[in-house]
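lol ok so funny story. i was supposed to be doing the assay writeup but got distracted and ended up predicting the structure for this chain instead. priorities right. anyway since i did it might as well share w the group, maybe its usefull for someone
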Amino acid sequence: MKTYIFLLSFLSFIILCLTLSSCLPDSASQTDFMVKVDSIHAPDSVASNTSFDIEFFGTIGFNGCVIFKSFNKTYKNKDIIIETWAGWNDFAGTCPTVLVSLDGKKLRMSIPVPGIYRLVIKEPGSTSIIKQVMVN
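and the output, tada:
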């Protein structure tokens, strides 16, 4: 009899765990992703230590559950490597069908040392957009 009660309790516990885990939102299993940038707009030359904007254009996704997250910059010699990241809006509920784009999203930056620099916009896969900028 004790074995029967133990087995019934154990199975009830397993069913409860499975039921609760199925209540987690779908977005909890989704991760951030790199955005494919179609084009950028940046000045050809800037003054050192002066802020300038780089404008980004491209499609993030096709429903209201995707959102822009961040620009990640790394520096390697005279290359400034920029990645554009998006993710999932955990609070969106039902995802409406809309076009979500970068639409000129701006990254403000400055370069302190004069020289010729390359803005390397990293894309998903192994491609990049490259723009040369002269810093006076």
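The chain has one domain: 30-135. DSSP finds one helix and eleven strands in the chain.
back to the writeup now i swear
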